[in-house]
Amino acid sequence: MCGIVAAVSQRNIVPVLVEGLKRLEYRGYDSCGVAVHQEGALRRARSTSRVAELDTLIVEDGVAGFTGIAHTRWATHGAPAVHNAHPHFSPSDANARIALVHNGIIENHEALRAELQAKGYTFVSQTDTEVIAHLVDHHYAGDLFAAVKAAIVRLKGAYAIAVFCRDEPHRVVGARAGSPLILGAGEGENFLASDAMALAGVTNQIVYLEEGDVVDLQIGKFWVEAREGEGFVRATREVRTVYAHSGAAELGPYRHFMQKEIFEQPRAIGDTLEGVTGITPEFFGDEAWKIFRDIDSVLILACGTSYYAGCTAKYWLESIARISTQVEIASEYRYRDSVPNPRTLVVTISQSGETADTIAALKHARSLGMEHTLTICNVATSAMVRECRLAYITRAGVEIGVASTKAFTTQLAGLFLLTLALAQVRGRLTEAQEAEHLRQMRHLPVALQGVLALEPQIMAWAEDFAKKHNALFLGRGKHYPIALEGALKLKEISYIHAEAYPAGELKHGPLALVDANMPVVTVAPHDELLKKLKSNMQEVRARGGELYVFADADSSIESEPGIHVIRMPEHYGALSPILHVVPLQLLAYHTACARGTDVDKPRNLAKSVTVE
Ligand code: G6P
């Protein structure tokens, strides 16, 4: 989703801004732009194409300057078009003096727009952002910091902004509320960015700005103030050394980041479970023992792929730890009347740790008196980790592909560990069981390598899938969420309509869709539900549907006309969902490649959804 990079420096900062945008590309965007202070005026370049094209424009137009702001936009208000791309200027004519970029959504933008139009401001875009630019200009009387503070108290909604002014060439002002923004302190130069990765290689001295902060950036110094009611007070923020991997954004021998990330899963799971030599609640934080003893249920809140990780964990938590578990889509939970239970462990799951709906759902749960909070998150420095009392940091590494893969399997690993820790506290884990689970967890990286070796067989299937318009995915029990995740992967990157059902539900509706043109992917591990699943498969065959089955090594399902079988190398027991999702990731990936879609940056989607 939208990305911000901004700088005050004493060198031409445009290459750094562009490099920062490239590092933020993975978040998803549909247009981009940069603005600088150049020869006493504001200059900008904007594009509805990739950052690489923006770079070409910058070179052609000779855009250069010491002070600048840059942005990748993911359209919310107004189509992806150059006139809607940031930076926005105010006034919107040749006398422009304010340049601004924004991430978030301003909810009262219509009222503000009417008010500013009445004051004589002309709007040239359909964005909510342009309102902020004009508002800052309206309040500007020679001090940008004061103008921004006066403007933001009028805003309702979520924002991270970076602003500069033609008349103060060595100053950038930033502010955040509800959207992430960090400050990077360099040598004689200072930066703002949506995340530390944007500044990798530039500075590792990072300040995580807090909710309501406004920051004044100048050469060699910065000043933070925190919102207090309608006013602001001086605030001190810790400068931390953050090692954001710049090398992680390299593709190596792979065609796409998604493929690279699928193949990184043995390493990612190995790293996530490193040091797990016995089960203890302490993996989740110092207070974990106390909290785990105090709870009688679990409420999981998440979005997208992370939500499906939660759905899978529900099966583990209820069957192994014997603890009642609910899983809710964060954007639904935050707005519905629910019955709070203060003895619930609220678990958020998030790759980015910045998903607006999940953070809001967490805060909502807390506001209902549920104080036992834990997050399974891939970014140790994220808002989610800061907001929760307990945390387990997955070590997937930076995930660039919008479609999540290694983050999902590492989340599952973290959730399995949580299940075992809760089982232990609840007296549901014998030493023998603990030893057996640990053995299986240690085996995961090797088992994953075996599954990845199936890639050539899956590529052959992908050729068939690429010609289809629809697909059904079936699973049962803890593999039903895996079927859901497989369908999500296929639709988000290949744009083929795909749906998932628990196989027993087929006869209650979706069977009407089955004919020779409907491929039916079946996740068929050799477990207690296999017999039932085989009957469901017969229902498909009887209607002429083509089955594509992922079976375990010891399964009795054989290939025959209309039934294609890929056999997984082993039978995996409780951890089977972690293995069975991998061929579905590969199927989606190769189908998308065969259709020639933009695999890493699928249309209309964003990696990190920091707006509601
Ligand atoms: C976006 C991404 C998904 C991700 C979801 C939740 O929709 O495209 O891949 O699953 O957000 O993100 P989170 O960072 O909270 O896991």
Automatic annotation (TrEMBL):
<dbReference type="InterPro" id="IPR046348">
    <property type="entry name" value="SIS_dom_sf"/>
</dbReference>
<keyword id="KW-0032">Aminotransferase</keyword>
<keyword id="KW-0808">Transferase</keyword>
<feature type="active site" description="Nucleophile; for GATase activity">
    <location>
        <position position="2"/>
    </location>
</feature>
<dbReference type="InterPro" id="IPR005855">
    <property type="entry name" value="GFAT"/>
</dbReference>
<dbReference type="Pfam" id="PF01380">
    <property type="entry name" value="SIS"/>
</dbReference>
<feature type="domain" description="SIS">
    <location>
        <begin position="461"/>
        <end position="602"/>
    </location>
</feature>
<dbReference type="GO" id="GO:0004360">
    <property type="term" value="F:glutamine-fructose-6-phosphate transaminase (isomerizing) activity"/>
</dbReference>
<keyword id="KW-0963">Cytoplasm</keyword>
<dbReference type="InterPro" id="IPR035466">
    <property type="entry name" value="GlmS/AgaS_SIS"/>
</dbReference>
<comment type="subunit">
    <text>Homodimer.</text>
</comment>
<keyword id="KW-0677">Repeat</keyword>
<dbReference type="GO" id="GO:0006002">
    <property type="term" value="P:fructose 6-phosphate metabolic process"/>
</dbReference>
<feature type="domain" description="SIS">
    <location>
        <begin position="288"/>
        <end position="428"/>
    </location>
</feature>
<dbReference type="GO" id="GO:0046349">
    <property type="term" value="P:amino sugar biosynthetic process"/>
</dbReference>
<dbReference type="InterPro" id="IPR047084">
    <property type="entry name" value="GFAT_N"/>
</dbReference>
<feature type="active site" description="For Fru-6P isomerization activity">
    <location>
        <position position="607"/>
    </location>
</feature>
<protein>
    <recommendedName>
        <fullName>Glutamine--fructose-6-phosphate aminotransferase [isomerizing]</fullName>
        <ecNumber>2.6.1.16</ecNumber>
    </recommendedName>
</protein>
<dbReference type="GO" id="GO:0005829">
    <property type="term" value="C:cytosol"/>
</dbReference>
<dbReference type="GO" id="GO:0097367">
    <property type="term" value="F:carbohydrate derivative binding"/>
</dbReference>
<keyword id="KW-0315">Glutamine amidotransferase</keyword>
<feature type="domain" description="Glutamine amidotransferase type-2">
    <location>
        <begin position="2"/>
        <end position="220"/>
    </location>
</feature>
<dbReference type="InterPro" id="IPR017932">
    <property type="entry name" value="GATase_2_dom"/>
</dbReference>
<dbReference type="InterPro" id="IPR035490">
    <property type="entry name" value="GlmS/FrlB_SIS"/>
</dbReference>
<dbReference type="InterPro" id="IPR029055">
    <property type="entry name" value="Ntn_hydrolases_N"/>
</dbReference>
<comment type="function">
    <text>Catalyzes the first step in hexosamine metabolism, converting fructose-6P into glucosamine-6P using glutamine as a nitrogen source.</text>
</comment>
<dbReference type="GO" id="GO:0006487">
    <property type="term" value="P:protein N-linked glycosylation"/>
</dbReference>
<dbReference type="Pfam" id="PF13522">
    <property type="entry name" value="GATase_6"/>
</dbReference>
<dbReference type="GO" id="GO:0006047">
    <property type="term" value="P:UDP-N-acetylglucosamine metabolic process"/>
</dbReference>
<dbReference type="GO" id="GO:0005975">
    <property type="term" value="P:carbohydrate metabolic process"/>
</dbReference>
<dbReference type="InterPro" id="IPR001347">
    <property type="entry name" value="SIS_dom"/>
</dbReference>
